[in-house]
Write a structure and sequence with these properties.
The chain has 249 residues and is of the alpha/beta class. The chain has 7 helices and 10 strands. The chain has a domain of 173 residues: Rossmann fold. Helices cover 33% and strands 27% of the residues. The protein has a 6-stranded mixed β-sheet, with helices on both faces. It has a 4-stranded antiparallel β-sheet with strand order 2-1-4-5, covered by helices on one side. It is globular, with a radius of gyration of 18 Å. 41% of the residues are buried. Bound molecules: adenosine-5'-diphosphate and magnesium ion (MG). GO terms for molecular function: ATP binding; ATP hydrolysis activity; transmembrane transporter activity. Its EC number is 7.6.2.-. It comes from Microbulbifer thermotolerans.
Amino acid sequence: MNSQVEIHTEQAVPVNTGGADVVLACRGLRKSYRQGNRELEVLRGVELEVKRGEKLAIVGASGSGKSTLLNLLGGLDTPSSGEVWVADQNLSELDANQRGWLRNRSLGFVYQFHHLLGEFSALENVAMPLLIGKQAVSRAREEATEMLRAVGLGERLTHKPSQLSGGERQRVAIARALVTRPACVLMDEPTGNLDRATAKEIHKLMERLNGEMGISFVIVTHDPDLAAALDRCLHLIDGKLEHAGENRV
Ligand code: ADP
Ligand code: MG
């Protein structure tokens, strides 16, 4: 394994940024899909830099490529051309195994639908990325418990997803994304399926964790209030990211 993507569980948080100010970046990112006998070019040269601690919104029409972009940024899919950098690592220079390690350690994901494992408890779901990262079971349980308490679910540790409300499930998903203390969390419409009050709670929680841990957030959202509350808002249009507003000078 590449020494630069080794797991350092004892390091201060967030880890694996190599001290870089830019935690996630892409350059000239292009992605095409084959649809029948034609090629659909979804991303046509996306440029992006996410700074440490920055909270970024990405907005755009349905089908404009927002999920495609998040998946590429997270190394879940590979671009047709262009580069994705996680701190000082060019993803295309890593093999699949190294990419997996880096992703598990440096990035967190929250999907539109929570993607929790139904047969496992909240605690087990949140501990999973730590166990995949080869952390000892007792330590993983401790850290997962701490993170579930932080999202206000200290009383729900043994509940399974089916025993939780939509907002609670999404908070478990957020706890799971944060438990490795990643440099950056990517969220795909995290509050899209929640009522306004719950969406607000989730937003408050994100702000608190951002303040306490300095984690960066890239959030795809349809919620104009959420987009306006973040540091920057970018619009994905015609396969490129355009500046849609600076919310903080
Ligand atoms: P958004 O998240 O903005 O709604 P997506 O990134 O999901 O958009 O999709 C962008 C476009 O790419 C859509 O036209 C979609 O049909 C197409 N697309 C997405 N994933 C695939 C795939 N795996 N194969 C073929 N076409 C895809
Ligand atoms: Mg989408």
